[in-house]
Amino acid sequence: MSARIGGAVVFVRNAARSRDFYRDVLGLDVELDAADATLLAGDGGTKLALRELPRAPRVMGGIGVQYVAWVVADAEALEHAQQALTTRGDLINSSTDNGVTVVEGRDPDGIRVVIVHPEMPGAGISELPDRLYAY
Prior knowledge:
Elements: E1 7-12, H1 15-26, E2 29-33, E3 37-41, E4 47-52, E5 69-71, H2 75-88, E6 91-97, E7 100-106, E8 112-117
Parallel strand pairs: 1-4, 5-8
Antiparallel strand pairs: 2-3, 3-4, 6-7, 7-8
C-alpha cells in the first residue's frame, strides 16, 4: 500500500493574495473563503488550505515541509502555470530531464512552488535532484 498527498495547509501572510496566486497559477478552485483562510481544490480531490498569519516567521531550510510538487494534467496546463509565474515575476526556472518538465517558482510569501508534467513516479529517476540540496 502507498499513500498520496490529499491536501496541504500553508500559512501565509495574506490569504486573499495567496488565494489569487494559487488559483491563477495552478488553476485551483476556491471552495471556501473566509477573512483569514481559504480552501482551494484541484483535480483528484486535492485540497490546499491557506491560513493567514501575518506575523509568523518563515524559515527556509528548517525542519518541516519545504515545498510540495504539483502535477498538472497536460503540457498546456504546465505552459499556463509557467506563463503565469513569468508574468508575475515569480518564475525561478524550468528544466526538462528524462521527459519530465519541472517549472519552479515562488508564491507571494517566497514559498517555492514546483509544478511537474508528466507525472512519472520513479521512471527515469536515477539520482536525487539538485533542488533537494538548494538550501
